[in-house]
């Protein structure tokens, strides 16, 4: 029986820090293989992935991942708790023995925090602060621990989700090498830097500079098709101009009043960034608003059915294939290797729409006719 | 009391034939002035106007029109009967004494045809033919007259609409100079040519060649901002990709089944023209389908309120202003000289959306802050 360590990732894009984390996860757990569940073409903070999911999956397979599966979009473009819950559930379904993840402070006592009751709505009535800020204050008040770093927040949510699955996986935090998660500047004295700083360089097509930070680079050709929100700005503008406030209010997570802000500011803004700044308030974080704009762009409705979990294979190597054979008969959720018409009109409808939209910009079909990457056989 | 002749037009774009028609209309009726009601930025056959409404209104004012008003979009982008009805109603509201129009065969006995009953739905069950074809066959069967030219069909509808208004205006057909309405080639031996042929030249920016066919040309600068369906193709594609068949079926005039054709073929087509050819069937004419795609693009819903008539002033000269003073107290429909927030959220909502969409491509705001053109004072 092969033993596996699960990794929840976005790889936006893949870099040396990610390779380090895969290597350490395998080493610390002594697992036979690493199973990666990765966001598709739209990522958790409400942005299109800088490189498409196939390119990112291939980068991971080249650097230690043995199987890469896609986190469904209805689970991926979500706040940390929902993102974590579905990713943990799917890895649990796949029988992973361990879940390993980066953390800014792996010595935090996540285990003691996972049973904390936070959900009294009275705790969230201060409208001058964002929801994540209020959560952090509450944890500090109740436990004295400070959880204010993005990976720590995710980690806490992994513990909670895993507890809800009877602690099916053993959780293995690994200290992140660089702590400035969103630093825009490359750190030239290190082989590690933030994904944000690499994205900036990709946008400017400075491929030479970033090769220092990305292991086993793909061809320039594959790194060429960079996608950003700017590519979708004319479509978003069109969508908001042609949709009245009543119809906008039917979009998923369109809270009371936000539809009026969108309608009001869309005619003033000349770029996505400008629009985002115009609609920003203290109450809503940038990721919250960016996700809302993804929902709007995709026409994702309040009453769309909730996320259905499934195992969508993006790629594997020999070890990954053996593991898949070992576990597939025990799966209680669908296994998807190829998107067909039926799937595209049912479980995967929003994923296919999201992929088609991304593919139009990226100029490559993302789902139909695509088969899993078979790496290094 | 000033006497006026009404003209229903699109001027897409204005050319020598249009000037001839205005001159002849004034001459034959001996009216003091010509009042033109013109489609705005989207025209009857379901296309964006090649030049925006302000440019086209100015061309008309330079060439004999004394007042130009806009036919509301909900009346303009419609089959001939609805287009004619609202245009005739608004000119009647404005107290026009005459209605003059071009006709391929002005000697047809339109008056005898206007009471013909055509609306037995049993007459329209041959799905191998388009609706206009069936109408033409029916008229021929009942009266022996052949009405198969676009301006004659409009003319018949003017007679019917005018009859329904107790023949308030005297109708004055004028023989059209050139008969090949949709000819793509310029006719170099004449100063008259089709609007289609001029559009082709405008798209290729051959301004020199077309100056022969356009009286009192505007500056090259004004003729530079040419708009075609191709400009909206990425938005239409986005719209159809992100809208499911149930939601598409709520679009105005989306007959049973057409939504499936749109969804099916949108992923195959690489251009608007290709898409239009893919969805074409014998039952539906190109204009019918193009109008449907305008409705889809504008998110114009089945249950949107019907067209409200109003008088939207695009421009006038001194005579036009005097006439407006003479008639405005008798208007039973709103007079709109400037679009404000209230109008843009109510009567003019779809017009403003349509203008904004057009203006985004054309790079000039079409409604807010615009005031009527005051010509040659």
TrEMBL record, chains A, B:
GO terms for biological process: tRNA modification. One of its GO terms (cellular component) is cytoplasm. This is tRNA(Met) cytidine acetate ligase. It comes from the Bacteria. Catalyzes the formation of N(4)-acetylcytidine (ac(4)C) at the wobble position of elongator tRNA(Met), using acetate and ATP as substrates. First activates an acetate ion to form acetyladenylate (Ac-AMP) and then transfers the acetyl group to tRNA to form ac(4)C34. The keyword Metal-binding does not apply. It catalyses: cytidine(34) in elongator tRNA(Met) + acetate + ATP = N(4)-acetylcytidine(34) in elongator tRNA(Met) + AMP + diphosphate. It holds the Pfam family HIGH_NTase1. It comes from Apilactobacillus bombintestini. GO terms for molecular function: ATP binding; ligase activity, forming carbon-nitrogen bonds; transferase activity; tRNA binding. Its main location: cytoplasm. It is an enzyme of class 6 (ligase). ATP binds at residues 8-21, 102, 151, 176-177. Belongs to the TmcAL family. Keywords: ATP-binding, Cytoplasm, Ligase, Nucleotide-binding, RNA-binding, Transferase, tRNA processing, tRNA-binding. The lineage of its organism: Bacteria, Bacillati, Bacillota, Bacilli, Lactobacillales. NCBIfam families: PRK13670.1. It is found in: Cytoplasm. Its EC number is 6.3.4.-. Gene3D superfamilies: HUPs. SUPFAM superfamilies: Nucleotidylyl transferase.
């Amino acid at each position: 029986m092969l033993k596996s360590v699960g990794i929840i990732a976005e790889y936006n894009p893949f870099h040396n820090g990610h390779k380090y984390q895969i290597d350490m996860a395998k080493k610390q757990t002594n697992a036979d293989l690493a199973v990666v569940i990765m966001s598709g073409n739209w990522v958790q903070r409400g942005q299109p992935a800088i490189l498409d999911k196939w390119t990112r999956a291939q980068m991971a397979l080249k650097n230690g991942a043995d199987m890469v599966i896609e986190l469904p979009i209805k689970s991926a473009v979500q706040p940390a708790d929902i993102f974590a819950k579905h990713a943990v559930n799917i890895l649990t379904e796949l029988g992973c023995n361990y879940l390993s993840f980066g953390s800014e402070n792996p010595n935090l006592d996540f285990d003691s925090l996972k049973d904390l009751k936070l959900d009294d709505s009275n705790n969230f009535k201060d409208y001058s602060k964002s929801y994540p800020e209020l959560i952090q204050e509450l944890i500090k008040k109740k436990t004295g621990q400070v959880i204010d770093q993005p990976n720590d927040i995710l980690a806490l949510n992994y513990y909670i989700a895993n507890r809800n699955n009877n602690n099916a996986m053993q959780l293995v935090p690994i200290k992140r090498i660089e702590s400035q998660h969103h630093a825009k500047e490359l750190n030239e004295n290190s082989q590690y830097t933030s994904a944000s700083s690499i994205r900036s360089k990709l946008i400017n097509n400075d491929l030479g500079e970033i090769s220092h930070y990305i292991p086993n680079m793909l061809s320039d050709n594959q790194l060429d098709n960079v996608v950003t929100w700017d590519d979708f700005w004319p479509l978003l503008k069109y969508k908001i101009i042609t949709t009245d406030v009543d119809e906008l209010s039917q979009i998923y997570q369109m809270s009371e009043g936000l539809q009026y802000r969108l309608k009001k500011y869309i005619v003033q803004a000349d770029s996505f960034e400008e629009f985002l700044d115009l609609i920003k308030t203290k109450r809503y974080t940038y990721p919250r608003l960016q996700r809302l704009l993804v929902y709007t762009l995709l026409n994702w409705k309040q009453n769309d059915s909730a996320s259905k979990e499934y195992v969508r294979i993006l790629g594997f190597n020999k070890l990954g294939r053996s593991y898949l054979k070992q576990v597939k008969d025990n799966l209680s959720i669908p296994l998807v290797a190829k998107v067909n018409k039926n799937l595209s009109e049912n479980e995967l409808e929003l994923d296919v729409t999201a992929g088609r939209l991304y593919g139009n910009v990226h100029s490559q079909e993302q789902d139909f006719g695509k088969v899993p990457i078979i790496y290094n056989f």
